[in-house]
Amino acid sequence: MSASAPLSSRTIDDAIDWAVKLQFGEPSEETLSAFQAWHASHTEHALAWQRVQSLGEDFRRVSPQLTLQVLEKLPAAGLSRRQALKLLILLGASAAPAWLAYREAPWQRLLAEYSTATGEVRHLELADGSRLVLNTDTAISTHFSPYERRVILRRGEVLVSTGADTTSPRRPFRLETPFGLLQAMDSRFCVRLYPACARVSISQGELSLLPANGGAPRQAQAGQDWWLRASLAEPTQARPFAEGAWAEGILAARDMRLVEFLDELGRYRVGRLACDPRVADLRVSGNYQLADTDQTLRFLARTQGLQLSYRTRFWVSVGPA
């Protein structure tokens, strides 16, 4: 079974049940034998166990203050409230630092076919030749049928270059978000999820934007940026950095406010990256590397006359020198 294969909710739930039983107290020989039998009985069980265990470090970052926020997001994430509660108990949410944000809790990775960790960028080629680039902290699944090619964006941001489908008739390429569908053919576009909408940027071809709650479909052209909400799709202005440059490991800032620059850079590192209000409106332009955010911060401080204050390795403040 492929390491990236999707898993059923039942199998995930069973894996969490076993994790809870083995984590607390001292499991009996009978319990250990039953677990080993379950683990060995199906390759899907072994894969589910591996995924639940691999998420341990990520979930330990979740603070108690974020528990309610996480539970409110469960319908979109695909986990039941019971599954999430058991994970929070199992992985020690109450011991986490209070300042870490919800984005450090990768619930969607449990059900995703492909995903990235914080700071990771991953390139994929699908069976039809479509190329995807997953940005930091992103989770997707795919579903290809005789009638369509579908990618489900569960979390984060993805850059899509659709392939030339060789089937007859050609199948539409659809990208599904919690807020609606995007339908493309011979297009290149970027989609990023926010709490209440998705931002869509088209660099080549055209897209049909179909809001989830039945709003009017809209046609988006190359060079345009759009908000896709559940009720409607509407055009918006370009952002002060080059869309998709992150796929090459670069944050290409264009007269960008420092506070916005740090918000964007902070997506690629674990912890908190704070901006002193006294320098928030400082303008930043240029190409900055994303692979080593600490090095980028040092370069920024040196060239912009700023000072970095490290409360811990994971809590950095940027202020005037």
- Within the largest sheet, what's the order of strands? 1-4-5-7-8-11-12
CATH architecture of the largest domain: Sandwich
Order of helices and strands: HHHHHHHEEEEEEEEEEEEEEEHEEHEE
Instruction: Report the strand count.
Output: 19
**Uncertain residue ranges:** 57-77, 89-106
Helicity level:
25-40%
Whole-number mean pLDDT: 82
CATH class of the largest domain: Mainly Beta
- Count up the domains: 3
What is the terminal-to-terminal distance?
Answer: 54 Å
Q: Which geometry do the CA atoms define?
A: flat
Reported for the largest beta sheet, the result is: 7 strands, mixed
Treating each run of at least 4 consecutive H or I residues as one helix, how many helices?
9
Instruction: Determine the CATH topology of the largest domain.
Output: Jelly Rolls
Using the CA coordinates, give the radius of gyration: 21 Å
Q: How does the helix and strand content classify structurally? A: alpha+beta
Strand content: 25-35%
